[in-house]
Amino acid sequence: MGRRYFGTDGVRARVGEGAMTPDFVMRLGWAAGRVLGNGSRAPVLIGKDTRRSGYLFESALEAGFAAAGMDVALLGPLPTPGVAYLTRALGAAAGVVISASHNPHEDNGVKFFSAAGDKLNDEIESAIEAMVDQPLECVEPARVGAAQRVSDAQARYTDFCADSYSGPSLHGMQVVLDCANGAAYQVAPQVLARLGMRLSTIGVAPDGFNINLRCGSTHLEALQERVISTGAELGIALDGDGDRCLMVDGNGQLVDGDQMLFLLARHRHATGTLRGPVVGTLMSNLALEQALVDLGIAFHRAKVGDRYVLERLQSEGGELGGENSGHLLCLDKNTTGDGLISALQLLEVVRSSGKSLAQLAAEIPLYPQVMVNIRAGTDAAALCQDARVRQAVSEAEAQLGSSGRVLLRPSGTEPLIRVMVEAQEAAVARTQADHIAAAVRQQAQAA
């Protein structure tokens, strides 16, 4: 069955439109309760980020789950990986996060975790979609679910993150931390301070509307400026729901998810703690793949989306994977992408190496990648297969040879076609990306 509401990371839309209306979210909660509950009286956990609309959708989900006969435990603002952790730790039937991740406050979304703390697979999401379209039938009065708040959710997750670190002392390390005015605004500073770091913080004053606004992992300018002005060793940028992390070295230069993944893999390989292959995505930089292969480390590519990275890791027996956006998976630490734990793992590599983050990042120079996004309406997938578009792709691939890559794909969250070209020289990548994008636009207008 096709997926009409779920994208690569749950359900997401502009607040008040499409799948993010109170009525739909209530029915989504009811449908998820019917599919995931299995008659269990274990509660479903609901966490959220700091968007004002989170209150609205929290109430709607609560009503939907209660109508399906499921009890609800409300966690309040908590990073997405914190919800995954507590779902396991508290023996919940499922976990739900109300968040649109790195998007602005006008958007919101809902994503689910199984009782094991894993993101749902396509089959379960399709089953929920099918149930959403059924008439909402409330259970008999004696079985209606109840709700309660979990007062120590943040404290539990703070302890979990701090206890996950076992590397050299971080005491006195000067770090700038950007929490994107999002879900990690309380937990992340507490964890890093507990480990002895000297902190300067950005994005720790959410007002319901400023999540990801000129801050966080998608807007690094303020972090880069603060790192340079304070002379910090490095900067850490989380996104609005705390499941991804990017870093900035002491010179203010970006260290992206591919570089972070390489440094983690190399360190674990050298210490004998790397298990199974490393998994990236179709977007992972070619330089990452080549560098890992040179070390004798197997590298596999999954579809774009950390849920697909997770599935590939599980099927191949691996523990380490991720995306260049900063969604990193360390499955020996948590069951899902965890920006704070990823940052701690990188800090361990930095401290263990005796080098600066800038020195380490320079050891994995990346190929230039050029991305062009083209509005494509509802037929993005079909447009990617258009004969003239495929011809343009073939022409670009012939020009690049073995020194680059082309990736053409529909977005999983927006009505866009994404054109990515990678080459050893930025000018070559730009020329070929523009060539393909022109063909896509021409065929989109003709459609």
Structural overview:
This protein has four domains: 6-151, Alpha-D-Glucose-1,6-Bisphosphate, subunit A, domain 3 (Alpha-D-Glucose-1,6-Bisphosphate, Chain A, domain 3), CATH 3.40.120.10; 156-252, Alpha-D-Glucose-1,6-Bisphosphate, Chain A, domain 3 (3-Layer(aba) Sandwich); 255-339 and 348-361, Alpha-D-Glucose-1,6-Bisphosphate, Chain A, domain 3 (3-Layer(aba) Sandwich); 369-446, Alpha-D-phosphohexomutase, C-terminal domain (TATA-Binding Protein), CATH 3.30.310. The model has no long low-confidence stretch (mean pLDDT 95). Helix 1 (22-37) crosses helix 2 and helix 1 crosses helix 4. It has 15 helices and 19 strands. The chain is an alpha/beta fold and 447 residues long. 39% of the residues lie in helices and 20% in strands. The strands form four sheets. Strands 1-2-6-5-3-4-7 form a seven-stranded mixed beta sheet, sandwiched between helices.
